[in-house]
Design goal:
CATH architecture of the largest domain: Alpha-Beta Barrel
Largest sheet: 8 strands, mixed
Strand content: 15-25%
Number of domains: 2
Number of strands: 18
Structural class: alpha/beta
Oligomer: single chain
CATH class of the largest domain: Alpha Beta
CATH superfamily of the largest domain: Metal-dependent hydrolases
Radius of gyration: 23 Å
Distance between the termini: 36 Å
Length: 429
């Protein structure tokens, strides 16, 4: 029993304690997340907030106002990376069903809340923080309406402690116009696409659902509460975003028109592989895009083989607000690669600072939290980290110190422990 207990303690993640001291980060290269860089910066942190961001080459700094001073000479300071559309904390091991809690039974479930299923003890979370990902939008999956997402800090004792913005939006999987058939019973070998014969009925059902929900929420007194309609209230008063998951250009057009017809105040397209074809529509209607993982294959056989890499640049050039996600197979585990997705986008048209913005401030704007996070600016939460190298480059990314709301967090994880263990065993340098 004692050996078993010792084994368990090896895998415990330490939750950060409250920060009581004021901190000054000195001499670092600050990438603000706003397209700006300060080569010699002084960043003050007090009570979980950034109090000042100073360019030391232009302004004199009073060092005596801070309890602790951290020299970041030659190192890079970045705002905390935000992962949108993520199942982080909702799934641990894909091969073990009992560790998956991202999908409920049913097809239209706006009242299902992913937040209460979020597991702060997930071993994946600590590996993600190591690469600077400090906030995430925890998102349900499945059905036509998957449920309601929330934004969490990637540090906390429980989901209540980790919650950053509760019930930020509802996720709608737009019906597909074409469905891919498979050549085997296990759905391994894909075949040709066929027209979805149920598309008209599925969209008609959605229109009726939203019409009824809007009417319900405009009624001052209702005889019987409807939990699904209650959950959709924020879509009509502007306190929540409708996240429409779709890739096809025609489906995007129909989804945008659907949103306008139903009086949805804020809409975001998730995936959007064909979004470069309809940028005028998106820009004119203030529709943002959460771009699906750029490390993927083109959507259509006739597409440029590099199109997924260039899509962020195309949206940038068209003036469409966008951010990057890492959804797909093994998405929770691979959330750590989000900064490298941005690095690929930088190699295919974006500047380094535009690519950083696509995983920080732009994400914060789309998720409605840019007033408090997403960039290094005075008055915002001190959610940031220090890396010895370029965070967008997998060869040099090395996060040494990270803060969430001014609290220094533990950057150790099980994989680091195993690395040190076998490094020592084989006497590796």
């Amino acid at each position: 029993m004692r050996k078993f207990f010792l084994l368990l303690t090896t895998f415990i993640t330490i939750t950060a304690s409250a920060q009581t001291k004021s901190i000054l980060l000195m001499n670092g290269i600050a990438h603000l997340g706003t397209d700006s860089v300060i080569q010699n910066s002084y960043i003050g942190i007090k009570n979980g907030k950034i109090t000042e961001v100073i360019d030391a080459s232009k302004t004199k700094v009073e060092l005596g106002n801070y309890d602790e001073k951290i020299d970041a000479t030659g190192k890079h300071i970045y705002p905390g990376i935000i992962s949108p559309n993520s199942t982080l904390g909702l799934i641990e091991m894909e091969s073990i069903r009992a560790t998956s809690d991202f999908k409920e039974v049913g097809s239209t479930l706006p009242n299902v809340r992913s937040l209460i299923a979020y597991n702060t003890d997930s071993k994946i979370i600590s590996t993600v923080r190591t690469n600077g990902v400090l906030l995430a939008q925890i998102t349900p999956r499945g059905g036509i309406i998957s449920g309601t997402s929330s934004i969490v800090k990637l540090d906390g004792w429980n989901w209540e402690d980790a919650a950053y913005k509760i019930d930020d939006g509802i996720h709608l999987n737009w019906p597909k116009m074409q469905i891919r058939k498979y050549l085997d019973e296990d759905n391994i070998y894909p075949g040709p696409y066929e027209k979805n014969k149920n598309y008209t009925k599925q969209t008609a059902d959605l229109k009726k659902l939203f019409f009824d929900a809007k009417a319900y929420n405009e009624t001052e007194v209702v005889e019987e509460k409807n939990l699904r309609f209650e959950a959709m209230k924020g879509l009509f008063n502007g306190t929540q975003t409708l996240f429409i998951h779709t890739d096809n250009a025609k489906e995007i057009i129909e989804a945008v028109n659907f949103s306008k017809q139903n009086g949805i105040k804020k809409t975001t397209v998730v995936g959007g592989k064909d979004s470069w074809m309809v940028t005028d529509l998106l820009r004119e209607n203030y529709i943002s895009v959460i771009v699906a993982r750029v490390h993927s294959l083109p959507e259509h056989p006739e597409d440029d083989v590099n199109l997924p890499y260039k899509l962020p640049y195309l949206l940038q050039q068209a003036g469409v607000l966008f951010c990057l996600d890492n959804s797909g197979d093994m998405e929770a585990m691979e959330t750590r690669n989000l900064p490298f997705m941005a690095g690929t986008a930088a190699a295919y048209g974006l500047t380094k600072e535009q690519a950083l913005k696509a995983i920080t401030l732009s994400t914060a704007k789309i998720l409605g939290i840019d007033n408090s996070t997403g960039s290094i600016e005075a008055g915002k939460d001190a959610t940031l980290f220090i890396s010895t190298g370029d965070v967008l480059d997998m060869r040099t990314n090395n996060v040494e110190l990270a803060f969430i709301k001014g609290i220094s967090i533990d950057l150790n994880n099980d994989q680091k422990k195993l690395y040190e263990k076998y490094k020592k065993k084989y006497d590796l340098k």
